[in-house]
Task: inverse folding
């Protein structure tokens, strides 16, 4: 960012306020009993998330940046995500919803004063370009997505509402099923200078070499995945990694999470509403093992993380890597389904203005996309500003997801943004698309990479 200090200040202010408006929307729609209940052992009570958001904001913006004395030092251990597993958090002496809201409000009021006084055009690693303020806004939005997952898991009538995404564009039915992504080098990751709010695992920018490959034009749909289910995919060990087959049998899995078969029809529960599974939407709530099994069944594979990023960012005409598939401008409603504007993915083939130079659609928004890759550091990685954000998670236990989902805020979603989770996770808003190696001799035509 090369903007003036006042532009940076306004950008940081807007990011913080936008996140807090969403937090209130997610917590004001249910009563105190719902806020303090644990709706799943996989998730924290909503009231924990609310106070944790405020505590992290105090730690980084009031104490680290502003030099303030702690407001509530006695609660720091309660809201340390590494000290207490989610399943045990309801037993802690947590702040009540009223206390959590008052604490969050007091922290925010003081933070805005810190922001007004901060030197944002200097070289300080926390305040330069407003990094710490952007980091905290992204953190809050990530927890907002976590709270949205909790809303999906909770039982009872719907507490959230939103308009439906726009219908699929007229050309969606005629899209090619896959796109040829020409091989060659590209710049993966990003530098601090080009994306000052990028998090440590997105850095540094480095060159990767990717061979020619084919990638699905859109994410795999519910209709396509239903064919795998109806073909006995969950009963056939041929398609599953050994650990995945064990997972399927132990959990007695038969379909994506929240699906059920009733009267010869597949139904799903979505934010308190039961409805027929829509064939044209990207499939949701599948684990990495399920995505991998479907890809094997279809005679394909999951793309690697490098393949995904090349398809999402590389412009063959210029040879440069973009911030987003459509270019460098921030996401808008015409580009992608982000920010909890809708409570479901848009139909496959939507958002033509958000497609990549090669014609790949919905790479950003709608559903997180599982990749084949383990979560590992880039060459030259340096933890910043704390090891626990990324470094402690590196290893084969976690798989990388890319692209964001309908519940991800634009501030926490870039072509370089990396998410990660255990391969058994199903409650997250994750889907996938598949890939295959290009046959020898396939012509790689930059800018004309579609095949039927």
Result:
């Amino acid at each position: 960012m090369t903007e003036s200090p006042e532009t940076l200040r306004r950008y940081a202010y807007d990011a913080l306020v936008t996140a807090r408006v969403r937090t209130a929307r997610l917590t004001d729609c249910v009563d105190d009993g719902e806020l303090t209940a644990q709706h799943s052992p996989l998730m924290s009570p909503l009231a924990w998330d609310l106070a944790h958001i405020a505590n992290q904001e105090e730690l980084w913006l009031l104490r680290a940046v502003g030099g303030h004395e702690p407001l509530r030092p006695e609660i720091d251990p309660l809201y340390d995500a590494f000290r207490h597993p989610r399943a045990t958090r309801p037993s802690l002496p947590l702040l009540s919803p009223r206390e959590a809201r008052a604490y969050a409000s007091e922290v925010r009021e003081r933070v805005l004063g810190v922001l007004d006084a901060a030197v944002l055009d200097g070289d300080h690693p926390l305040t330069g370009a407003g990094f710490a303020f952007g980091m905290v806004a992204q953190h809050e939005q990530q927890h907002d997505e976590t709270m949205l997952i909790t809303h999906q898991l909770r039982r009872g009538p719907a507490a959230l509402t939103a308009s439906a995404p726009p219908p699929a564009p007229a050309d969606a039915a005629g899209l090619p099923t896959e796109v040829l992504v020409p091989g060659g080098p590209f710049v993966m990751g990003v530098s601090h200078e080009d994306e000052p709010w990028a998090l440590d695992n997105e850095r540094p920018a480095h060159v990767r070499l990717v061979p020619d490959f084919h990638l699905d034009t859109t994410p795999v749909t519910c209709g396509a995945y239903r064919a795998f289910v109806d073909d006995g995919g969950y009963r056939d060990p041929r398609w599953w990694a050994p650990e995945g087959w064990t997972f399927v049998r132990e959990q007695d899995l038969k379909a994506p999470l929240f699906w059920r078969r009733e009267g010869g029809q597949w139904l799903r529960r979505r934010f308190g509403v039961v409805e027929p599974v829509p064939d044209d939407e990207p499939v949701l709530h599948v684990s990495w093992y399920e995505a991998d099994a479907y890809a094997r069944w279809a005679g394909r594979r999951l793309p690697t993380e490098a393949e995904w990023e090349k398809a999402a960012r590389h412009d063959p005409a210029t040879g440069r890597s973009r911030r987003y598939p459509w270019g460098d401008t921030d996401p808008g409603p015409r580009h992608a389904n982000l920010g909890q504007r809708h409570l479901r993915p848009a139909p496959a083939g939507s958002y033509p203005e958000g497609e990549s130079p090669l014609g790949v659609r919905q790479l950003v928004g709608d559903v997180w996309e599982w990749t084949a890759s383990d979560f590992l550091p880039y060459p030259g990685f340096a933890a910043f500003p704390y090891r626990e954000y990324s470094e402690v998670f590196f290893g084969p236990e976690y798989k990388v997801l890319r692209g964001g989902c309908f519940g991800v805020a634009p501030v926490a979603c870039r072509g370089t943004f990396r998410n990660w989770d255990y391969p058994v996770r199903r409650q997250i808003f994750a889907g996938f698309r598949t890939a295959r190696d290009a046959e020898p001799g396939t012509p790689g035509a930059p800018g004309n990479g579609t095949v039927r």
